[in-house]
Design a protein that fits this description.
It contains 37 helices and 29 strands. Strands 12-13-11-14-15-8-20 form a 7-stranded parallel β-sheet, sandwiched between helices. The chain has a 6-stranded mixed β-sheet with strand order 1-2-6-3-4-5. Helix 1 packs antiparallel against helix 6, helix 10 crosses helix 22 and helix 15 runs antiparallel to helix 18.
Length: 1029
């Protein structure tokens, strides 16, 4: 079994052994059932009147619980653990459904696999054997459930007793088995969601994990590379890589589309955006490390804008009424045909997901928010000036009064209630699609005109970008040439000295030559004089026997030597003259290049003049051009980190216009396409559970094309991981487009597998140094499963905040896996992260200072602006309040004295805390502390109308507030000297304190026993920083 298979099997079983808890409302007298909430009813207060539904279309799910987890661990031979918060909790046991006639709904019985496996002590068995045993148990119980003709209270209790007896827990003490019934109302419409138990949501992950484990994932597949990242020689660290950052931020790598805004991204935001949108650099797995307040949403907006431009460009090659028709075998003629969406468009659909419900909904609401795009570089997104921007009225129908929107750019998906809102804008069953134009009324756009307008602006942006990039390159060439010339000009003086030296040498050589010539002539003359004195007989004798006169012989030798010397002198003279001439020419050339510098400087100034429409642009261009200064000590260079190189207004405005034009083209394509509207009509029927006569395979294929059609209409759809298995049930590997996972640092890897398996590309955004994943499986249970699959033998390790993690670490998130699979990474201290965003714009000091020191190795740069004038907040100052007291005990860490201090702060504040959820958050490491405080606050402020809602929204552990912010935040620590181990647990990593501090925009107070907390990790640093304040 390879590494990927072993890890998947491990995750499957960890998921199976996750305790099931049910969020419910308490039973008060005769409270009726609801489709929205689960009602918890004590065993002895269940009445037949509760089981009556006024409408036959409804059915009731009946659940039973709860059993102590510590008892289950004991039954499964799992060693006892000390729980730092509470007593280990309780888990739900089983559920089944009855219809409006009180008859059992076949195959609706479900059981907590966690409870069953531990009660039967079968954890050591193979996964398939466990599944078979559970299925056999369910089949046997099904027989018993069917044996009752009608389900009144008596029969419900009888079947409950029978099931408990089968599980050997019918005689347990009330302290171990707390008998309660859970009731939930369901519509009987035939849709997938209705078949799922509302009490076993973790099983949504199980289905996908089982499906993926059976697939033979290729080593190069997206999912395999995330699960077990292989070493990649092309991987590079980019946050201090001058050459890479300089290259990736060039105009040629900037996206063609721009989200409407006057503002530029920061340097690392720009790098991440350009990597994601560039054809040359974009990988299929990309991760971004986004600490609090660093603009993760801003980054995603830019990626979304460019993706929409790419969609529009593909659409220019399509005919709205010539989509490929696919025929089915349904007997229903109206539903026989559906239309294929081109593969290129499917790959550009965007799904945003998280396990954080509020994070998902916030993104969907934030993208189309009208107030955020009123003041941009154009007025194309101003709802006060534009009647329609992109299906604007349809967007308002989906979001209603929750937010004022500019267009149908995004919408929440996943939950049935969200899907129903989307269905409201799609064609009705009995409405002809020829006459359906959404809510555009009489303003039906022309596809051909929209296409022409788009291509015009697209070409304009493309030409501008190419020209801008060429001119930037020429700018750098000119700057390099100037440097080269200046370096050469510095050589002129040296060269002139050399010329003078050569001139002097020439003089000496010539003088030497004259002297040698004179000597040669003298020797020749002297020899001639001697020879003239010879007789004829002597001359004949010399001709026969040779010269014998010693003097003549000496003169001959002298003449030969002098001739040789003169030859060498002539050569030296020529070489020296040539050298002198060459150097003189070089000096003259260099003298002439002074004029060239002036011309090059004129070209550079002309570049700045042509591309700067204002003083800000000019400053930016000059800053971008000075790369030596810009990238000097780039990690700590605050000025450069907040800057987007080359992000000038004219280019940004054109790109914003292109984004608007892209939306117009997509809108025109959709409203003029019968195939698109036919698919959307089919989608509405399918999601409403209509039987259209398709086979199972046909229905699956039709739905997939119809969903891609919806993702064309609404470019960004969001969902939680819990909904993925249901809403994308028929989708296989790589059949979705771009998946963006938000707040990925708090997502368990297995929760994201279903969506990533279906993704064509993924962008993972989060911070492993904030809230960690919630893993409710105990560490001893994890070790048992890990040993079973040999996970401790895997070589891959992960370094997070100086600690080494492996695949069995509860803190391991999908963010960390993606960071290690990402081709482009950075470092925060010793933690290897994805592309790091470092410019912070949320919190003032000291909140920023605390976070930066304890979590980010002081890498962050604070650009949050202080208040321009004095403003009152709930908390008057930032401080560590020393409040001692005794905790409740037995795992409950609430200290009443600390709660009283908070109540006094609320009472004494001039601000009405309960009027606005953004006034004050109260956060604690411990659920028991929050529960205790909630009870006391509700008692102290029982006359406040909004007290329950405020407590639910503004009190919680750090997991509740990830991604949220308030003006003031109190971190309530609880604990006393009897729970030092729990305090140490809260201080073992910086995450809890980091998240709490960065929720506060203006004021932050820690309340706790100073003697207990001040010397613990991270709290010591926080205390010191608050003392300075």
């Amino acid at each position: 079994m390879n590494e990927v298979k072993r890890i998947l099997n491990y995750w499957k079983e960890v998921n199976l052994l996750t305790p099931v808890t049910v969020k419910s409302v308490g039973f008060k007298n005769q409270k009726s059932l609801s489709t929205k909430e689960i009602l918890k009813v004590p065993y002895n207060r269940l009445e037949d009147s509760l089981l009556i539904t006024d409408d036959k279309k409804y059915e009731i799910e009946i659940g039973f619980g709860d059993i102590k987890n510590t008892y289950l661990y004991e039954k499964g031979n799992i060693p006892k653990e000390d729980f730092v918060d509470g007593d280990g909790g309780e888990t739900f046991i089983f559920a089944f459904k009855i219809d409006a006639d009180k008859k059992y709904k076949e195959k609706s019985f479900t059981i907590s696999k966690f409870s069953y496996i531990l009660l039967k002590n079968i954890i050591s068995k193979d996964y398939d054997d466990i599944e078979n045993e559970i299925n056999k148990f369910i089949e046997n119980i099904e027989i018993d459930l069917k044996s009752f003709e009608i389900y009144n209270v008596d029969n419900i209790k009888k079947i409950t007793s029978l099931i408990l007896k089968e599980l050997n827990i019918d005689n347990l003490d009330d302290n171990i088995l707390k008998k309660s019934f859970y009731l939930k109302l369901f519509s009987q419409k035939d849709d997938d969601e209705n078949d799922e138990s509302s009490f076993f949501q973790m099983d949504f992950y199980t289905k996908d994990l089982e499906k993926i484990a059976k697939v033979d994932l290729k080593g190069t597949s997206l999912l395999a590379n995330i699960i077990y990242p292989k070493e990649n020689k092309n991987r590079q660290k980019i946050d201090d890589n001058k050459e890479f950052l300089e290259e990736i931020t060039l105009p040629k790598n900037m996206p063609l589309g721009k989200w409407p805004s006057k503002f530029n991204p920061s340097l690392m935001q720009a790098a991440a955006i350009n990597i994601c949108t560039s054809e040359e650099y974009s990988p299929n797995i990309f991760s971004v490390n986004g600490p609090p307040g660093t603009g993760k949403t801003t980054l995603l907006k830019e990626i979304i804008a460019d993706t929409i431009v790419k969609k529009a460009k593909i659409i220019t090659d399509l005919n709205p009424n010539n989509l490929e028709v696919i025929k089915t075998n349904t007997p229903e003629p109206y539903y026989r045909n559906y239309y294929k969406i081109p593969e290129e468009l499917k790959k550009l659909g965007i799904i945003v997901a998280s396990n954080n419900n509020s994070a998902v909904e916030n993104i969907s609401k934030d993208l189309p928010k009208a107030e955020d795009v009123l003041d941009t570089l154009t007025d194309l997104f101003d709802v006060n000036k534009q009647k329609n921007i992109y299906f604007t009225k349809d967007s308002k129908i989906i979001f209603k009064d929750s937010t004022n929107t500019w267009g149908l750019i995004s919408a929440p998906y996943g939950k049935k209630v969200n899907i129903n809102k989307i269905l409201d804008i799609l064609p009705e069953k009995n409405k002809k699609i020829d006459n359906f134009y959404f809510n555009l009324e009489n303003s039906i756009p022309s596809f051909e005109k929209s296409k022409k307008d788009f291509l015009d602006i697209y070409s304009k942006v493309l030409r501008y970008r190419e020209s801008f990039n060429n001119n930037v390159n020429q700018l750098f060439k000119n700057k390099d040439k100037i440097i080269e010339i200046k370096n050469n000009l510095n050589q002129i003086s040296t060269l002139k000295n050399k010329v003078e030296d050569l001139t002097e040498s020439l003089k000496k050589i010539r003088e030497n030559k004259e002297f040698k010539d004179s000597m040669l002539n003298h020797k020749i003359q002297e020899k001639s004089n001697i020879e003239n004195l010879y007789s004829i007989l002597t001359k004949i004798k010399i001709s026969v026997l040779g010269e014998k006169n010693p003097k003549v012989l000496e003169l001959n030798n002298d003449i030969i030597k002098l001739n040789e010397e003169i030859i060498n002198i002539n050569k030296e003279l020529k070489d020296t003259e040539n050298n002198k001439n060459e150097l003189s020419k070089k000096v003259q050339i260099l003298e002439n290049t002074k004029e060239e510098i002036e011309k090059l400087n004129e070209e550079i100034n002309l570049f700045f003049e042509n591309y700067s429409s204002n003083e800000s642009d000019l400053k930016l261009l000059k800053k971008s051009a000075d790369t030596e200064t810009f990238y000097n000590d780039i990690i700590k260079n605050a000025s450069s980190q907040e800057t987007c190189p080359w992000g000038i207004e004219e280019f940004n405005k054109l790109r914003e216009e292109l984004f608007a034009s892209s939306l117009k083209l997509i809108e025109a394509f959709i409203v003029n396409s019968k195939g698109i509207k036919a698919n959307l009509k089919l989608l509405k029927l399918l999601l409403n559970g209509e039987n259209l006569g398709y086979s199972i395979e046909e229905r699956k294929n039709v739905f997939k094309e119809c969903f891609h059609t919806l993702n064309l209409l609404i470019p960004v759809l969001s969902t939680t991981f819990a909904s993925v298995s249901r809403v994308f049930k028929g989708f296989n590997e790589n059949e979705l487009g771009i998946v963006i996972i938000d707040e990925a640092g708090q997502a368990t890897p297995f929760s994201a597998m279903g969506l990533l398996y279906r993704a064509n590309r993924c962008i993972i955004v989060g911070d492993p140094l904030q809230v960690e994943p919630v893993m409710t499986v105990t560490s001893t249970l994890i070790r048992a499963i890990a040993n079973k699959y040999g996970l401790n033998d895997l070589a891959k390790k992960f370094n997070i905040a100086g600690k080494v993690f492996n695949y069995t670490s509860p803190s391991l998130s999908i963010q960390t896996l993606a960071d290690y699979a990402n081709l482009y990474y950075g470092k925060i201290g010793e933690t290897e992260v994805g592309c790091p965003l470092v410019v912070h714009r949320r919190c003032l000091s000291p909140m920023f200072d605390i976070s930066n020191e304890i979590s980010y190795d002081n890498r962050m740069i604070n650009k949050c602006m202080p208040d321009k004038k004095k403003i009152d907040y709930v908390l008057e100052k930032n401080e560590f309040l020393d409040v001692k007291g005794q905790e409740v005990g037995n795992g409950n860490h609430y200290v009443k004295e600390q709660g009283k201090v908070i109540i006094d702060i609320i009472k004494n504040s001039e601000i009405n805390v309960f009027e606005n959820n953004k006034n004050l958050y109260i956060i604690s490491p411990f659920t028991t502390v929050i529960n205790g405080l909630k009870k006391d606050i509700k008692e102290a402020f029982k006359n406040e109308v909004e007290i329950n809602e405020w407590c639910n929204n503004c009190l919680g552990t750090v997991h509740k507030f990830q991604g949220k912010e308030a003006d003031s935040v109190i971190l309530l620590l609880g604990c006393d000297n009897n729970s030092k181990s729990s305090a140490k647990w809260a201080a073992q990593q910086a995450n809890i304190l980091n998240v709490a501090a960065t929720r506060a925009k203006k004021r932050f107070t820690i309340i706790g026993d100073l003697d207990l907390w001040e010397n613990l990790n991270f709290f010591k640093e926080a205390k010191n920083i608050l003392d300075i304040e």
